[in-house]
Amino acid sequence: MTAKRNTPVALIRDAAPFAIRAERGSDVVAREALLDACFGCNRHTRTCQRLRDGRAPAEGLSLAAVRQDGRLVGTVRLWHVSAGGRSALMLGPLAVDDDCRGLGVGAALMRRALAVAKARGHGAVILLGDAPYYARFGFTVAKTGELSLPGTFERERLLGVELVAGALDGAWGMITPTGAPLPEAKAPRTRSRTRKAPLAVPHAA
């Protein structure tokens, strides 16, 4: 009689309590409420918003994080820009529901966004955010030092990552929007309220 072998069994980690998927039309109200909560109602007056106003996000690069009950708990979108004559994407805003901090929602959104951007043939991504947080995804100031934004910004927070080597070589000048214009009826209206925004670090603006 052959002795029964003890076959090692790999432990299976619990499934993530959220999923990343493409944003849907039904997500818009929840997304806007989340962005208001993270960045304040004056977020429409921020510098990076000038690159998004009246423009459509890059195709396939509006992502949502949702809980198992369907509640939206994270969002990120990327936009077509010219980075001093170099074609690139601008990432933001990135926001995560306070109740889901520490679950890796932001990191999951970032990794998926960069993977999709690379798969779609984009060469570089730029954002305005905290260098210590975004360094893990490859973002640095190495090739953004000669770039500017249409408004006030902190130089050390303008970061970039190349998805294709050399995509930001020689990038110099103003970052400008190049995405497809939204139909006028769909263009978001700038809000007039200027209530102080809550702290939203380390999320990209």
UniProtKB/TrEMBL annotation:
Entry EC no(s): 2.3.1.-
Protein source organism: Bradyrhizobium brasilense
UniProt domain N-acetyltransferase: residue ranges: 18-160
Any single Pfam family the record assigns to this protein: Acetyltransf_1
Annotated region (Disordered), positions in chain: 179-205
MF GO annotations: acyltransferase activity
Entry keywords, A to Z: Acyltransferase, Transferase
SUPFAM superfamilies per the UniProt record, alphabetical: Acyl-CoA N-acyltransferases (Nat)
Enzyme's top EC category: transferase
Protein name, as recorded: N-acetyltransferase
UniProt-listed InterPro entries: Acyl_CoA_acyltransferase, GNAT_dom
